[in-house]
Amino acid sequence: MRKIIVLGCLIGASFFVGCNQTTEAEKKAENEGQPKELEMYEESELALLMREMYEDNLVLKTQIENGEIPESFPEDFYNIHTAIASKGMISDTAAFNVYAEQYLVNMKKITEASDKKQAKIAYNEMVMTCASCHQIYCQGPLPKIRKMKIKIDE
Ligand code: HEC
Prior knowledge:
Layout lengths: L1 H12 L10 H9 L12 H21 L27 H19 L4 H22 L4 H5 L8
Helix pairs in contact: 4-5
Bound molecules: heme C (HEC).
C-alpha cells in the first residue's frame, strides 16, 4: 500500500513536457535566429488524455514488473479517437486513427498475455506504438516514452 502512495506522489510531481519541448541546442539556435513568438498554451482534451495514459501505464508497468498480468486497462483510453487535439496538431486524421487503433490493439494484447514474460513483451510493444505515433505528431515526449519500457532479462 505504502509503495503505491509513494508512486502516486512521484507521478503527481513529475513534470509534463508538451510536444514542443526544445532541447538546449535548439534553444540556442533560436536565440541566434528570429525572436521566438510567445504562444498561449491551453491544454487540449487529447493532451490531458495523454497524461492520463502516461500515468496509468506507469502503474501497469509496476504491476507487470511485479509479475502480474493486468486484466484490463482504463476505458478512458478509448477516447483517443474522439478527444480533441490542440489546434493544428493533427493534419491527417485518418493516419492518426490508424496509430490510435494500433495503440488500443496493443493495450488489449497486454491483457491477453499468456504468461509474465509475454506480458512484459506486450507492454513494451504498446510503448513502441506510443513512440511511433509520437515520431509523427509530437516529438517532445519521446525521451519520456522510451523510458517507460521494461527491461527484460533473459
Ligand atoms: C495515435 C497517436 C498517439 C499515440 C498512440 C500516443 N500519443 Fe501521446 N500524443 C499524441 C498527440 C497528437 C499529442 C498532442 C496532443 C495535443 O497537444 O492536443 C500527444 C501528447 C502527449 C503528451 C504530452 C501531453 C501534454 O502535456 O501536452 C504525452 C506525455 C504523451 N502524449 C504520452 C503518450 C504515451 C505515454 C502514449 C502511449 C501510452 C501515447 N502518448 C500515445 C499522439 C499520440
